[in-house]
């Protein structure tokens, strides 16, 4: 497997950044240094460690009257609302709606904080992968939280077992009409997506209702197998678990087509769905289907015949050999020569872009208060949403277009409308400013500690070293001499190098001089704001 041979080149900061950019969100310099010291194999093992799960999201808005306040009896400020009743006992539906909106804001901000605060771990990147694979949407923040919790808990576990959990998850049962699928009124919605989007793929049409991997008759039979699963209304207790109604289940055996070797699924009540999923996963195409998804997420959107033969097929076999535990295959892929040759071919998703700007430039979420911390993260959520990547709210059940829609794929993140917004958001993270999202203004202070960024670079009083090291951190490959010259002209317009050396050295020797501090800060902020708007920062 020459494509999948383990990378044997020099393990430097460049290779570490490439691996960490693809497997985490944004790369702080300390993580790069840690990875270099660990080596490739040590970094891979660290990335796939199963860390403790995060504490649940908190109520971050105060009760009372006025801006940024909400009357939510489900939790005190600074406590989690997750365990409170999913149907708040309040006087009006308007009050309930406001509470749901407040809890949703908390959940969305908290989700960004998990990505922002993650260290050397692939878990959050895989959680987002599964979130995009098993698309599900609900307006109740409790169901959204517990759905995402299933994905996070299983992000490094078994693909087949995750499919079984998702199939009877209340969020999915509601989203794809599984709770409406009964013996008297069959609904094929989830059965179809289970096959086409979640497990095996459709393939090409080979006849009337006959595709490469299943038939329309299989969809009908699958729907019958899946009948009987229900979700209680929010007004009742225990609203966050599904239950099986034998009365609503289609009895008897279900015959599958030649695509599944004419298998027969015997009557098995509430466990029948597990038998169905076991049969789906007997097909080798399941492993190839999920391997292609991983490849598009971590490597490249375009899969040639060569890649199919030399990467997808052998990795898929490894997944099958491990009974659909996929981590061994992912470790091989991310350690391979092929992975380290696949550089600069991916346009950053909006989430990757936002967190590249914050984490790569040493920004940490404010700790002055829970409100400040969550509000910062919520603004990042809004910005990513405005750039067409909204957590919990995909455009359709197939997920974000960048990972499936030919021929654009990742290029769908950038167009004449989105690109100016991307550049402006990157600039505002560095310089501060007003974000206008859905006709509402959000004032963002300058977030990046540019003085700290500069002092973390050895010999940063030399403008050539400063700019070169910044470009290495942000772009992960060398800039040209003309680019270096142009960026230096941003830092010290029309002035010789020693002007920066003198001023910056004076600041280092006298950091309490406020006028010097402001002058150096402004120069650095202008430089870095230009760098994060360069096309080199938009790709990874």
Describe the structure.
The chain has helices spanning 13-23, 29-47, 93-117, 123-133, 141-153, 159-167, 170-175, 189-199, 216-225, 272-280, 285-298, 305-321, 327-334, 337-341, 350-359, 370-386, 418-431, 450-455, 463-475, 481-491, 497-509, 514-531; strands at 205-207, 210-211, 229-231, 242-244, 254-255, 264-265, 433-437, 440-444. By secondary structure, the chain is mainly alpha-helical. The strands form 4 sheets. The chain has a two-stranded antiparallel sheet with strand order 1-2. A hairpin with an 8-residue loop joins strand 5 and strand 6. The radius of gyration is 26 Å and the shape is globular.
Keyphrases for this structure?
540 residues, mainly alpha, two-stranded antiparallel ribbon, 22 helices, globular
Write the layout of secondary structure elements.
Elements: H1 13-23, H2 29-47, H3 93-117, H4 123-133, H5 141-153, H6 159-167, H7 170-175, H8 189-199, E1 205-207, E2 210-211, H9 216-225, E3 229-231, E4 242-244, E5 254-255, E6 264-265, H10 272-280, H11 285-298, H12 305-321, H13 327-334, H14 337-341, H15 350-359, H16 370-386, H17 418-431, E7 433-437, E8 440-444, H18 450-455, H19 463-475, H20 481-491, H21 497-509, H22 514-531
Antiparallel strand pairs: 1-2, 3-4, 5-6, 7-8
Helix pairs in contact: 1-2, 3-5, 3-16, 6-10, 8-9, 11-12, 12-13, 15-16, 15-17, 17-22, 19-20, 20-22
